[in-house]
Amino acid sequence: MDIFDTFFLVEYLRQWALRGRIVIITMHPPTFEIYNMLTRVLVLTNGRTIFSGKRKDMIPYFESLDYPCPAQKNPADYYIDLVSLDMTTPEAHVESVQRIEHLASIFTQHQPSLTDLSHPGVLPPKIWTASAPWQVIVLWIRALIFQFPYNLIEALHQVIQNVAMSVLIGVVYFGLNRNQASADDRLGLLYVILAVGIWPMIIHIIQKGMNAWPQLLDQMGQHLLSLNGTGRKKYVARMLELTYPESSRRKELGLGPTPVKS
């Protein structure tokens, strides 16, 4: 992805994390704007931890080790270069290995000991598992929110279609009498309302299911979705959606509009 799409994707993940979720991402390296979106930072090199903590504490930590970030320099760029192996010359390689080992050992010394078990932690509460109907409802509501305003346009289309069908039936049976001679006409009106009038809605639902079926097969082929309990709930929720265009899928991922290939 380019910088523009990466920025909006990280911003979407940040908003997602603010709602109580944990998001773990790896970037090499992030831009300064994306770096400021992060809450915590973990710097790894050769399997050794160089820094782990809050993003606002990273610069003061390295400054305390006599590695201040230069002015007008992206801290992510500078400190990733600082802990990367330099393979330009044998001397530079040895110096970078020693620097990494020194920084890793200092960070290890600053970590609290894990041998003190006199105060065991409290077990987390049991995770509440929602029932199958409730999961379908939540997935359906989430899909409606992500697809706005496309679902509103589709709902308006269905309303216009139903109104047109009602007007057509009303014109055909306009002036229907209530006498005995019009009994067959009244039965015909009931038949049209119960059998013929709902056919546009049924055809629309079938067409929506057929359009969603290739996406379902594609996700199953990529092992992104299975027909287990969660997969069935997600598919049922998608069948309840008003529409699911490609632009809505990109909106859900925070990728912006569909790119145009030249």
Number of distinct helices:
11
Overall outline: elongated
**How many beta strands in the DSSP annotation?**
2
The overall average pLDDT, rounded, is 77
SSE order, as H and E? HHEEHHHHHHHHH
The amount of beta strand, in percent, is: under 5%
Instruction: Work out the radius of gyration.
Output: 30 Å
Characterize the largest beta sheet: strand count, sense, and whether it forms a barrel. Answer: 2 strands, antiparallel
> Could you say which structural class the secondary elements and strand pairing correspond to?
mainly alpha
CA-CA gap between termini:
17 Å
Strand order of the largest sheet: 1-2
Low-confidence stretches: 242-262
Proportion of residues in helical segments: 55-70%
